[in-house]
Amino acid sequence: MAPSEKLKSHTEKDSSPALKRAIAVTRWKRILKALTVALLIVPIGYMLTFAYYAFGTKSTTLMDTASKVLYLTEPNTSLEEMEFDMDFSLFSMNLSFDQYKQVGSEHYPVRHYNLHFVLDDLVEKEMASNLDRNPPRYPGEDNQWLVHPGQVPKVDSGQDWLMLKGLPEETVAEAYFSLNDLYSITELRKAFPGVDVLWAAIYTGIEDEMLSADGDPVSPIGYPVQPDRTYWSPFRDSMSHEETFLQLLKEIQPYEGLAMEVSSHKNLALAERIDYIETNGFKTYGVVVTGPKREIEALERSDLIRSMKLGEVKLWNWTK
């Protein structure tokens, strides 16, 4: 073998292990860098998520919109501040809470909501109900529980009056009264002294046909009538529930798409409703009441009531 070939062979034998080690070290460095970057992405992503929702006030906006629209579109319902659970995951937030109804003198949990947001988009909504008598999931022109005087009621009011009469005397009930005309809340509270008027559906110029100017079906909107001391309630310490109601409509309007996704209403038509109320004021065509069975039953003879839909029923808890 020539001297040059011997030298080349010797060099290859000596350098081969060193070269392999260098390649292995370089490979592991790349792997470690990739792992480091991957491990940093997750905590950084969580930090950005927390900053987006907490410091960007997104969580407050989403929570406020969700709660306010339920007060205005779900008759006789309320929320409790301490019942709001908020969990953050990567670029998303879960918001869960319970909804309550007043039947008689007590409040009962009736629904549980679980909302999943990715950034500020509602991507999933779950609602579990333990109501005995569920209102329409998607209220429309043909299945209203509160009906404008210009519409023909689609509920069997006679059957509901019979069900009410068949209840034991030691019960309290929730009832949805559709009225024969437009009235002020003050008039109705004086006319129904034996029960609590809880929630009023407000006439906004489009309930005659339950269609917006674009021809889309709309649903009742309104506000709670009784004073509300619940800390979370937008009506807490309100001097005028009517004015608070109008203000809430304006606050929800920029987030109308989200509000419709949270509530069971497919179309809120807030712009035209706000314009009508500001021009014409507040009148109601339907109310939700609660009280002893015998007091509600006695109202069947009222000239103000056009039809009735029976809601929830509980054992006696009336303390008034």
UniProtKB/TrEMBL annotation:
Stated name of the protein: Anti-sigma factor
Species of provenance: Bhargavaea beijingensis
TM ranges: 31-55
UniProt keyword annotations, A-Z: Membrane, Transmembrane, Transmembrane helix
Signal sequence bounds: none
Occurrences of domain Sigma factor regulator C-terminal (ranges): 164-312
Source organism superkingdom: Bacteria
Domain Sigma factor regulator N-terminal positions: 22-107
